[in-house]
Amino acid sequence: MNRLEGKLGWAVLFVLGLVFPLVAHRDYLLTVMSTAYIFALATIGLNLITGYTGQYNLAHSGFMAIGAYTVGILTVDHQVPFWIAFLCSGLVCLVFGFFVGILSLRLKGHYFSIFTLCVGYILYLGIEKWDGLTHGVSDIIGIPAPTIFGLSFDRSIPLYYLTFAFLVLGIAVMHRVVHSLLGRTFMAIRNSDTLAESIGINLMRNKVLAFMLSVVFAGYAGGLYAGALRFLAPDLAGVDHTFDMTMYMLVGGMGTLFGPLLGALVVPWLTQYLQFLQEYRFVVFGPLLILLVIFLPNGLVGLYYARKARRTAHATNASSKAGASASTTSGLSGASSLQSTDPTHPGTEKGHA
After folding, report:
1. Does 24-273 carry CATH code 1.10.150?
2. I want to staple 61 with a disulfide (CB 3.0 to 4.6 A). Which of 75, 215, 242, 324 is the partner?
């Protein structure tokens, strides 16, 4: 039944995503949703290393920028076709992720996060200062739009469906990962390094693997970002984008598949609707986020699962109590019947007399 409910919920979301352009009457709305899909794809990757493996990577937006700049540099400076450059965006992040993971994952807890924060800032400075490669503060302009069989994704509706398709593909891949033996290995590491190592799990190898998979998602999200916006600036590598993705995980529910997706889609629209407050919108949004973290530490999806668990436990307790009551009643009736038919019982002897 739970699997049926899960499939039904994903099917409803898929249908809503398909029909959204039919109800969105402005290109601006499609652009906002397309950007939200791109950052949702990156957030799903961050959730793998943080929510499922328990390692908080603060350089995640830097890897997203690596993927984006790989596409921008190859297409603009070297006239490489977009899809070849897009394929390279994930592979470059995979290689960078291996070496950064080998170095950083020797540390644990806050030390790992501080190290990756430094890595993210180094990536930001490298992109900003290396004018000969990244164009620096001059930005990369004129990135070609993705095309497939002559269909160009330079307009809002085709671009929306392109980002939506990659988000669906990313969710499907991540679903396979987290529900496999590898995903359970990641969760065992998150729950206890010592316990995981005691049952034979190679901590370093699996942590590095989780790190590499997570930054591949960031790299491909960056490649989509480059193709969607068609210009790049160093700000993409800023740590504030990592904090945005962290906020999406906290709002939706860290360590779940649906939670980061929910947060990445809800929070951008909430900030859009608070734009009338201009710079004061964060005065409203900030306390709301603080209250959410205090009273709903597991996010919106965590709240749903907690309520569902309580209902299941209540139903189980009620059924067990009913079963115990029925067993007691049956036992009492059986004893009464035995007493009435036992010839050695005093009441029976009196009746015969």
Report:
1. no
2. 242
